[in-house]
Amino acid sequence: MKKIEIEKPAEFLKLIEENKDKYLYNDHPSDGIDLFTDEIIEQYGWHGITFDEITYRDIAQFIEDNCDGEFIYNDHPMGFNAYAIVYDMEKAREQIKEYIVNKIKSLPLSDMDLDDDQIEALEFFGIRYN
Q: Considering the entire predicted model, what is its pTM?
């Protein structure tokens, strides 16, 4: 992603308002990343985080490192604020799903005592676990 720093907090807040219908997530100091605005990616994240090894921050970092788009941020002493706009949502969905599936598959699933949410996540992603 192309990284763009907006130095003045007021300008950054104005941009957030202007782009609220475009960004995939908003990383703010109070809650960090609490959801993805794309329903499909949110489902991937929701199911993925049932495993402790996957967090919304991990998924966001993957997006920032691997998806085409813009990462706009304000690194202010009062707190870091950022949001990401993805140019090709279909491609990003594929990349994110593959990232989460591969991360889950790398876990020692046969040695884990899976809970109901984790079993549901495996079924959601079509991962065999027996």
A: 0.91
The answer to whether residues 70 and 2 touch, using CB atoms and an 8 Å cutoff, is yes
Which tokens hold the place of 82?
């950022």
Please write the tens of the pLDDT for every residue from 52-82.
Answer: 999 999 999 999 999 999 999 999 887 889 9
Per the structure block, which two tokens stand in for 129? 């676990």
Spatial separation of the C-alpha atoms in residues 4 and 10, rounded to whole Å:
15
Q: What is the number of other CB atoms lying within 10 angstroms of the CB of residue 76?
A: 14
**Considering its fold, how many domains does the chain have in total?**
1
Q: Is residue 51 part of a domain?
A: yes
Is there a domain that residue 101 lies in?
yes
Give domain status of residue 130, yes or no. Answer: no
Whole-Å CA distances, 26 to 4, 20, 57: 14, 9, 11
